[in-house]
Task: structure prediction
Amino acid sequence: MESYQQPVQDVLQDLTTSAQGLTSAEAQQRLQTHGYNELKEADRDPVWKLILETFKDPMVIVLLLAAVVQLALGEVIEAVIIFAVLVLNAVVGVVQTKKAEGALDALRQMSAPSAKVLRDGVKQTLAARELVPGDVVALEAGDFVAADGRILESSSLRVNEGMLTGESEPVEKHTEPIPGESALGDRKNMVYSGALVVYGRGNFVVTATAEKTEIGKIAGLLASAEAKQTPLQRKLAAFSKKLGWVILALCILIFGVEAFRVWTGVETEDMTGALLKAFMFAVAVAVAAIPEALSSIVTIVLAVGTHKMARRHAIIRKLPAVETLGSTSVICTDKTGTLTQNKMTVVDSYVPGRSEEQYTEDPEQWSVSERWLMQVAVLCNDAHINQDGAELGDPTEVALIAYSNSKKQPYAKLRREFPRQAELPFDSDRKLMSTVHTIDEQRMLLTKGGPDVVLARCSHVLVDGEEKPVTPELLEGIRQQIEEFSDRALRVLAFGYKPLFTSGTITFEDEKDLVLVGLKAMIDPPREEVFDSIEEARKAGIKSVMITGDHKTTAQAIARQIGLMEEQDIALTGQELDDLSEEELDQKLERISVYARVSPENKIRIVRAWQRKGKVTAMTGDGVNDAPALKQADIGVAMGSGTDVAKDASAMILTDDNFVSIVSAVAVGRTVFDNIKKAIAYLFAGNLGAIIAILFALALDWVNPFNPIQLLFINLLNDSLPAIALGMEKAEPNVMRRKPRDINEGIFAGGMMKSVIARGVLIGAAVIVSQWLGLQQSPEMSIAMAFTTLILARTLQTFAARSNTQTAIGAGFFENKYVLGAVLLCFGLYGLTVLPGVREIFSIPADFGWDEWKVAAGLAAAAVTLMEVWKLTPWASDKK
Ligand code: ATP
Result:
């Protein structure tokens, strides 16, 4: 018999479990038998296959061709070395990229779904992969269902199973057995892995996990997560393609020049010799120009950036967000918990008809109204405080029961006395919650919610224990009180009740004709660091906008307290927003700092309005209904404490729910982008220097200053280390004082082109001078000197590449230890090339001694010094 056909008790028995769930020991044992509750990822390509893939690169093919030509010329060692270096590069590149990807995967794991499971009779949050058949799992709105199971309890539990049934309407679940055969979509007492709880609460016993679940049967394997590229990576790929064409054109030009020389008789060599020479020049240009290590360096720097963000409580789920963060112009943020501490404390209350003087803290002397107020607050409430003082549930509700406890009115006692019979759970759209209890032998609906919402549904007011019809005067008095509390930045809740004369379930229709009992006001202090953070964002050209479900006056008061709302700014309610046309909204948008009493649809409209103005917008959210707005935003930011649905829709998760973490993630995002650009500029400037020297030699008919091995050695080994080290550079001092970067900005924007050219020309010039000096002795000496100047200038360029605005000394010479380490290692690498036995491979003749070295090195140092001097000139200024 299928689980859905059986009564709950039989299902539990079949699974040898109970409604209290399994013990940890039993669960552990079942885990051994059933395995983890996860679908296996499709195998990724093994490393060796990826390494082979790199040999498809046209660039690598050219080099292999060069190796073959060398082989044909009898230069066996050279050929072998080219081949070895290519293999080494492929291995290092693939392994490093794999490692960086692994690190990103690990981060993604941190935001993997969890499940609230009963183990040893205690509710605990575990990773969803730990679930085993027999586990009892609790569900509430916003949860993903983590395994298949039979419903044990349902309180208006509604689940969207569209991914399995194609049905977009949520299905209400119940616990009764369903006789006979029924289709998946009709099994209303079951839930299936991957479904989404959109409303209500309930729990289920797990009947199947992993591949045995319905979704597992269909999917079998989880498609391996596609590694999405960031905009910059895409731009770089496009740029590399263009670069390829330029290189091809250059190579053709070189052949052309050589052919012309042979034809005009300038060259005395035979045709084959000339062509061979042209070929080696062309290869040199190709090797010199292509930044072989670039893409793995970018991946590594991005991975380092995401790690840094994770340490600052921001977990990146979608890699492009690292970059987009740096362009963020607007942060739309929730209030409760993000800007405030979400630590509510009841500080005041109000019951109509009670004067200030009558108010007493002593429950013994409370009026009927005050007793009712306490009763509704505690009964229409899901929060708990454990024996050890641990608070469970919504902080707003915890505050109410904590208050009751503090008045020696233990909430648990009241709940035992008047057990709950039915409920309409809280949701942030209705801003209401209701429960049903029998009190003094009368079935009663108790309701609490936003004061305006409750008030609108009241037909009576309890005044001195007497139900009186609502009058304009009474209403006015209550409204004034709400405003007075809200002005003090307090969160206000209103409480009401109504006798029910029906039995059975209740619907939203019942939440009307209520009797208003009173109000409670609670304080939720702003997070301490928020004030500075909003100021920091403002200086960085980022506007912070508060979007809250709370009352307008409360929201406004807090916004002013934390400096989010300035003098000329305005606050709107969701209702007022609905009344604005798109044009009116566009006109006012920049001045609106606070949106109160908003609905999820309002959130989408706000994001779209900012996007119309071309602003990159980050938006926070935590609830089920926030998902569409989180998807719409350029950067959806989910709260760590939020629902699975919200997390799934977001690009970033804040583990501490804190606004401050968004701003620090922006700072890291900007720095990561800066650093990637520094690494790119470093690589391109070095390559440009080499190309200039090669073309110059070609034009003057000098010997080719570099052979492919030298260039490969520099590009693949020597340059990679400093480029990665530059990726670790700390933030530029002005990182949070400049305007957000334009998201469409090209790679070379912001003065980068100028510095690449300036530094490339300087390196090129130094190499040319060095080669010319070498030529005075011999062609061999000219190659040795050109190589020495090039490699040392490129190594030393690391210092110049550290900042576009500061000199290496100004930026703190010893600040970036990675740079120092990389430069030292590069010196070591260079040292290897002049060792006896090795130097022949690098075409360094035996008579290249200290004197020549000093000249070559001196030229390199001079070039780099000039690069630093260049920074001090007005031409270098990097207008952002
Ligand atoms: P933010 O959107 O900044 O997080 P919020 O916490 O006020 O603000 P919601 O949790 O959606 O947003 O709550 C919306 C409104 O519903 C609150 O302002 C309050 O009036 C009311 N409310 C909040 N919690 C409850 C609750 N547990 N029961 C009844 N009403 C509530």
Remarks:
- DSSP finds 30 helices and 25 strands in the chain.
